């Protein structure tokens, strides 16, 4: 259950994961290993945690830091995220902060989910600092070089 006086933060992002599928046939005589086919996929990930008044993560809280995700796509992630938020009592939070990169699926689907779950009026949305600076550098290089 969320503490009524605490602020919650959710960070949502994708990642990169290499899925290995073993090749069929015999092992190579030199290496004595099967080869594999590697395919990069993007898992969808999130972290839920409590922050103090200064915005710092609270590690010793009644609410544990929660990390979860899926390889099944954003719809599965939304179901998992919703289950965690309902279990933690997101509607009782004093404030909610959503931190994410610029991925369109995040900004289209997660704010309506938070509204549907009865998040407090003080729900803030923030772009992830590292993704913003990366994109600003690309823009600056293109504009000024």
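^ structure tokens above, recovered residues below v
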């Amino acid at each position: 259950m969320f503490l009524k006086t605490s602020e919650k933060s959710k960070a949502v992002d994708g990642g990169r994961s290499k899925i290995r599928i073993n090749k069929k046939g015999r092992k190579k005589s030199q290496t004595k290993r099967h080869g594999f086919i590697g395919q990069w996929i993007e898992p969808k990930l999130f972290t839920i945690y409590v922050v103090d008044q200064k915005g710092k993560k609270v590690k010793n809280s009644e609410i544990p830091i929660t990390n979860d995700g899926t390889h099944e796509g954003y719809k599965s992630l939304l179901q998992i995220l919703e289950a965690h938020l309902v279990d933690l009592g997101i509607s009782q939070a004093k404030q909610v902060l959503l931190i994410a990169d610029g991925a369109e699926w995040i900004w289209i689907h997660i704010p309506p989910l938070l509204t549907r779950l009865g998040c407090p009026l003080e729900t803030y949305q923030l772009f992830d600092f590292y993704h913003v600076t990366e994109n600003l550098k690309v823009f600056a290089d293109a504009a000024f070089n």
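Strands lie at 7-14, 17-22, 36-41, 44-51, 66-70, 95-100, 123-127.
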